[in-house]
Write a structure and sequence with these properties.
heterodimer, A: about 500 residues, mainly alpha, two-stranded antiparallel sheet, 19 helices, about 5% strand, globular, B: about 625 residues, 26 helices, 2 strands, about 75% helix
Chain lengths: ~500, ~625
């Protein structure tokens, strides 16, 4: 069993299915195949989580590696190498969980070019899984680029009225970032005497001068900052979200944004620790601005989707804040927050999608009093809202708390300002809830809106359950990610400086 | 005999949680009887478990139970754990005991409401959160309860959500509390980062033994107090509580009078070891408390809505509790929590019975003469009013007197600010007696302001709790007085110094005089010479005073025009200036001008352009990769 390439199976199954779909023409069958395949991948991801050895340290598990593009003299050795550590595992799980929900959300929402849509969705899944599993920098770059194409198609072909503008904007932003990154990848190759192996690169790049590290940090960092998105690279996000179909928004918010933060954690910080340290004050400052600015932007929005999009800017600010505290607590909080944001914002976009499908509107002032005709829907929306505003006991809180703790250990001022975001978060989300759900039903047409169907409720159930479970038992994630986060931050902050390192007070209990 | 309770402390919050889950999931499909029974069972059973826990604590045995590792945070970790010490055991009884009574009362009060099971679900969720808050053995678990009660408060204030006024009041409560919680969270972080733990026991030994620089404690003490100001409605975060009266009246009794709003006071008692080290902060606490007590009492005098009178009274009485805590005689604040829980819950439930009888009328100007038609409510309401006024012998008398003595003692220890605090509290005591009597007279005495028929008389489920609470309001103070200090001081940090010998006699005498004169003055004014008050209100001075006081000193307006409007404007302006113009128009669309032009020009072919762009990107990327590979290969 040890020789089975589990990761490749999980990764390539959707792409293979996407190719297979070309031979199918019945819409119903296409949807069923997409659902079955993505569900199988989700089951595969759950099995990976179950088979993952949390006590095995930072080592890559389920690793596989074969030579891909190589010269005989060994000067070039690009490998097809996959593997997961705790961080990758969390992201793979999140991705695999969201895709089947996206299929369900698109079931009746996507009416044109059905086959192409599901083919794009499935190949997108392969690309995303590949990014999170790749152990070879070149392979990473290939997956990174490959994944963007179906994403752009999903926004641009199945999107809303301004989809062309949105997708071109997305394309321009992304291509700008990718170009810099490509230069960075090549420079790393030459500077490390011909290495693409991501596990050995941190050591291989140890000889870089501070100046080089800074430039390389920027080359990768800009691409990642655009994805996060960090202020001021964020303006593609509201447009992309508003125009994307529900599935596109869920994937954008749930998975794509995480790739930015993942890149910082996987590449920028361990490869260029001194460069990262040099830019940390700037990144922290931008994180705080993102948190506060994103939250303020939410208050100025009247389109529900746009509001949620801006809330992502604010929430991902916490991720970056925790990450660039270079503390274990901050890094752990960041990874947890990445998962949490995927769950809560993914759920929010699914919920808005349900409403949009019924009312074909999504302005906050188009609605009012929906709690009356749609009680079940209103309850689900409330739970997700509470998760999003970081109510202790639900998932959002723990990640935010750890990220803030990390920041507090290193930069108190930034932590204090960032904590203001917690207040603002409650303001805009509760205002949204009030405007949409409370009060009398404002428009006649809304009186007869159907409540969430059992199928819709079931499709949201996994997210709602995880929102509660991870709030009560975040160790499910944190225990698995700790060795990997520790390793990623190892060179930028020696373990002695993680915190005000005192003896563990609980050890003696 | 009560040792078994050590292993099942978790049941105390778990029982109401189970009630919540059942009613939340299946409530709408159950009969009202069943749904109500489940709703009441949770808190009553929790009381049954809390009782032996209290007895254990009373016999000097600490109970603690660690349930599971909640947050592994690197070198440290935070567990979910509960702990019952004397302070927690007293709160446990108050919360489960009075909570049970109010649940029973609600059976009658909410009988006709279409949201019956939802109501009990929320109320049970509240009990769960409040009990977690009380039982928590560390700050972060306490914070779970702390925000949880805030959530339930929000849900229950907005319970009748179809009226936007209620929804807005709920939202206001949540947001104002979040401002406080911003402080609370930072306070926790401060302590966590400085001491490496958030566990109360470990913090206590770290703070007391470490002896370290108290300057490290200033910031967390101040920040946590900001949280307390939010939860316990102290200036400047008091503005949400009067609006919170939009919720059903039993909710006002349980959450916005007897239990949740005392959480801030409880928190200071819980962190006595911290607060005793920071006299500077305690001075601030005392001044905030005294100012809140006095101003809220003034406002209560002119309110015309029966629930608003009680709401401002609650704010004022909470000020009393904080003043007691600030004197570092911590037991006095807790004592007042207990007596206040009895009489304020009673007054709210009595007010609820009146409102219920009058089909929703809350304006005391339209009441009057209800003594004859609602004699049971009248008699119990008297007990509550007497206790609130602090008339000699009633529960309120003893606890209020204890606080006055404590503050007086503190002033005599060289903390001069407490002299002013003491005077402000004396003035408040007078005003409290005054508005209590005013309320009593306007509601129950004199002639009916309007002819009424078909009064809704309270059924037994509403009446029995009133009687129990009335008995408590009369006798709890006298019974507990000799015992409270000894019991609570056992588990807490000893206050430094003692009261001067004359303090007892002086304060008791003043309490007698002020409460009786305040009560008598209001009786004279409203029962005998009702015209005098009206005439004062029409004089020049009276009109100005009335305008300021009845507009609550324009604090809400001030917030609206500064913080609220400021944030909104800033949000709108920043969106336009930064996102739309600076980044998008100038930078992105400037840089991507060509691509954008191409996009608009090609819009005619609709989606084709995107496939084209994506295809171009694919080809471009592939070409680039091929070129790069070629170079690398040649290089190699």
């Amino acid at each position: 069993m040890d020789n089975v390439p589990w990761l490749s199976l999980v990764t390539w199954l959707p792409a293979a299915a996407a190719a297979g779909l070309l031979a199918v023409s019945r819409k119903e069958l296409i949807k069923k195949i997409a659902l079955a395949v993505s569900s199988a991948v989700a089951v595969g991801a759950i099995l990976l989580v179950a088979g993952f050895d949390a006590g095995a340290g930072e080592r890559m598990q389920f690793a596989e590696s074969v030579s891909w593009i190589a010269t005989d003299d060994g000067a070039l050795d690009i490998r097809y190498a996959l593997g997961v550590d705790g961080i990758s595992l969390a992201m793979v799980f999140l991705t695999a969980l969201l895709i089947p929900l996206c299929v369900l959300a698109s079931w009746s929402a996507v009416k044109v070019r059905v086959r192409a849509f599901y083919a794009a969705l499935l190949s997108l899944e392969t690309g995303m899984l590949g990014v999170f599993m790749a152990r070879d920098l070149f392979l990473f770059y290939v997956f990174w680029e490959a994944m963007l194409i179906p994403m752009i198609l999903i926004i641009g072909v199945w999107g809303g009225p301004r989809r062309v503008y949105a997708s071109v904007k997305f394309l321009v932003y992304t291509m700008a970032g990718s170009l810099f990154m490509l230069v960075g990848v090549l420079y790393c190759y030459f500077a490390s005497d011909g290495m693409f192996d991501m596990e050995r690169l941190p050591a291989g790049l140890a000889g870089l001068s501070l100046q080089e590290q800074k430039w390389l940090f920027l080359a990768f960092g800009i691409a990642f900052a655009i994805k996060v998105p960090l202020f001021p690279f964020h303006t593609w996000l509201p447009d992309a979200h508003v125009e994307a179909p529900t599935a596109g928004s869920v994937i954008l918010a749930g998975v794509l944004l995480k790739m930015g933060a993942y890149g910082f954690l996987r590449i920028c910080i361990p490869f260029f620790p001194e460069g990262a340290a040099a830019f940390a004050p700037a990144v922290v400052a931008l994180s705080v601005v993102s948190i506060l600015f994103g939250a303020l932007m939410c208050m100025a929005q009247s389109d529900i989707k746009k509001l949620i999009a801006y809330s992502s800017v604010s929430h991902l600010g916490f991720v970056m804040l925790g990450l660039f505290s270079f503390t274990l607590a901050g890094g752990q909080g960041a990874v947890l927050q990445m998962v949490n944001h995927g769950l809560s914002t993914g759920a929010l976009f699914l919920l808005v999608g349900i409403l949009y499908e019924r009312a074909h509107r999504r302005g906050t002032d188009d609605f009012g009093g929906l709690a009356k005709p749609m009680p079940r829907y209103a309850t689900m929306f409330m739970i997700v809202t509470l998760s999003s505003i970081g109510l202790p006991g639900l998932n959002g809180f723990v990640g935010e708390f750890l990220a803030l703790k990390g920041a507090f250990e290193t930069r108190q001022g930034a932590a204090v300002l960032a904590a203001l975001g917690v207040v603002l978060g409650a303001v805009y989300m509760l205002k949204l809830y009030r405007d949409v759900f409370w009060g009398p039903v404002t428009a006649r047409r809304n009186e007869a809106l159907l409540d969430a169907s059992p199928l819709e409720a079931v499709s949201l159930a996994p997210l709602l359950v995880l929102i509660v479970v991870l709030g009560v038992w975040p160790g499910l994630i944190l225990n698995r990610t700790e060795p990997a986060v520790r390793a990623a931050l190892e060179r930028v902050a020696p373990p002695g400086e993680y915190s005000m390192s005192r003896e563990a007070p609980h050890a003696d209990r | 005999m009560t040792a078994w309770v050590h292993d099942v402390i978790w049941l105390i919050p778990a029982l109401p949680l189970a009630g919540f889950l059942v009613n939340a999931v299946a409530g709408r499909r159950m009969s009202r009887g069943l749904s109500g029974m489940i709703g009441v069972a949770g808190p009553v059973l929790a009381f049954v478990v809390a009782l032996p826990a209290f007895l254990e604590a009373a016999s000097g045995v600490l109970i603690s139970q660690t349930l599971w590792r909640w947050i592994p945070a690197g070198e440290t970790a935070i567990d979910v754990g509960f702990r019952v010490d004397p302070l927690a055991s007293v709160m446990l009884l108050v919360v489960t005991g009075i909570g049970s009574l109010i649940h029973i009362y609600s059976l009658g009060y909410m009988k006709e409401d279409p949201g019956f099971s939802r109501y009990f679900a929320y109320l049970n969720l509240f009990m769960f959160s409040m009990l977690v808050l009380v039982l928590a053995d560390n700050l972060l678990v306490m914070f779970v309860g702390w925000e949880g009660v805030g959530l339930c408060s929000y849900l229950l204030i907005g319970f009748w959500y179809q009226d936007l006024k209620n929804a807005d009041a709920g939202k206001k409560a949540f947001v104002v509390n979040r401002v406080g919680d911003f402080g609370f969270l930072l306070g926790i972080l401060f302590l966590f980062v400085s001491f490496g733990t958030v566990n109360f026991q470990e913090l206590r030994s770290a703070v007391l033994e470490g002896g370290g620089a108290p300057v490290l404690l200033l910031a967390p003490a101040a920040l946590l107090f900001l949280g307390a100001c939010g939860k316990s409605a102290q200036i400047p975060l008091h503005v949400w509580l009067p609006d919170a009266m939009a919720g059903p009246t039993p909710v006002s009794a349980l959450i916005h009078a007897a239990t949740m709003v005392t959480a801030g006071v409880y928190m200071i008692g819980r962190l006595d070891f911290l607060y005793v080290q920071v006299p500077e902060i305690m001075k601030v606490v005392a001044i905030v408390a005294a100012a809140t007590a006095l101003l809220a009492a003034l406002i209560a005098v002119v309110q015309t809505d029966i629930k608003k009178v009680l709401a401002y009274s609650t704010i004022s009485q909470l000020g009393f509790m904080f003043a007691g805590m600030a004197s570092t005689f911590f037991y006095t604040g807790t004592f007042h929590i207990v007596t206040h829980a009895f009489f304020k819950a009673l007054l709210f439930l009595g007010a609820g019975a009146v409102i219920h009888a009058l089909h929703g009328e809350q304006d005391i100007r339209k009441m009057g003469g209800l003594a004859k038609s609602l004699p049971g409510v009248f008699l119990t309401f008297i007990c509550g009013a007497v206790a609130l006024a602090g008339l000699p012998g009633s529960a309120g008398f003893f606890s209020k007197d204890a606080i006055l003595q404590a503050v007086y003692a503190r002033a005599n220890m060289g903390y001069n600010a407490f002299g002013f605090v003491w005077i402000a509290l004396l003035a408040t005591a007078f005003l409290t007696a005054f508005y209590s009597a005013r309320l009593l007279v306007r509601v129950f005495f004199g002639a009916a302001a309007e002819p009424r028929h078909d009064l809704h008389r309270p059924g037994s489920s509403m009446f029995v709790p009133l009687v129990v609470l009335a008995v408590g309001s009369l006798f709890a103070g006298g019974l507990l007085n000799p015992w409270m200090e000894r019991f609570l001081s056992g588990g807490q940090v000893a206050a430094h110094g003692t009261a001067p010998p004359h303090a007892h006699a002086l304060n008791a005498t003043l309490s007698w005089i002020l409460s009786l004169s305040g009560f008598g003055a209001a009786f004279a004014l409203y029962a005998l010479r009702g015209d005098l008050a009206a005439r004062f209100a029409e004089s020049d001075l009276g009109r100005v005073a009335y305008r300021w006081v009845s507009n609550k000193f324009y604090v809400d307006e001030a917030y609206h025009w500064t913080v609220v409007a400021g944030t909104k404007t800033a949000a709108a302006a920043l969106w336009l200036a930064v996102d739309r113009v600076l980044i998008d128009a100038l930078m992105v669309e400037g840089a991507g001008w060509l691509a954008y032009r191409a996009g608009t020009a090609l819009k005619r072919v609709h989606t084709g352009v995107i496939s084209l762009a994506a295809g171009a990107m694919a080809v471009g990327s592939a070409g680039l990769l091929a070129y790069v590979l070629y170079r690398i290969l040649n290089h190699g």
